[in-house]
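Hi U.,

Before I forget, here's the chain from the pilot set. I'm dumping it here mostly so it's searchable later in email.
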Amino acid sequence: MPQIAIEWRKYASVNSSVRLEQGCMSIKISDLLQSCPAPVMEALAFILLGKMYRKAVSKTHVRRYNLYLNRREMRRDMQLVKQARGRKFISGPEGKVYDLAEVFGDLNERYFNGMMARPQLGWSRTRSSRLLGHFDPCHNAIIISRIFDQSKVEKAALELVMYHEMLHLKFPTEYRGARRCIHSAEFKAAEKEFDGWKEARELLKRL
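Structure:
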């Protein structure tokens, strides 16, 4: 049995980690979980040990932990902490080739009758080809990969990614027990209403 050192950390999320070095197990847990019930902490222990030893974790433990995180009060606390502690780089909408404010405004008129309130808009720090865009509800921001801010990239590809992130504003994440549904059936149906949806997806694949 190794020596165990547990430390509560003021993370911006509910991240937890475990490391085993020189006979000492170091565990760092978000202080958001300090008041959680013992069965939930036990479930987290099984999850962390499973990751460290690369062993399968019982679905019972995973479900119990996720159920706790998906509680309305917990989601509220997580969002407040992320707003207070988290750092968010937001470059602003203007790029070298495209202006995200103009793209958002045009799509807002075409698909949402101009009724969608504009969140913060910005370009990513790098030209990521894996994370093309994301909506951050805690900071109310849409961030688009700089890979699109090039003259060789067709506007339709950028528009489809922006439209996808705008749909996250219209269809927020749904929580069903231990499950989290990010892209509901309504979301997926609305995404296909984008003009030239298939053609734009092919443009994205080329990136």
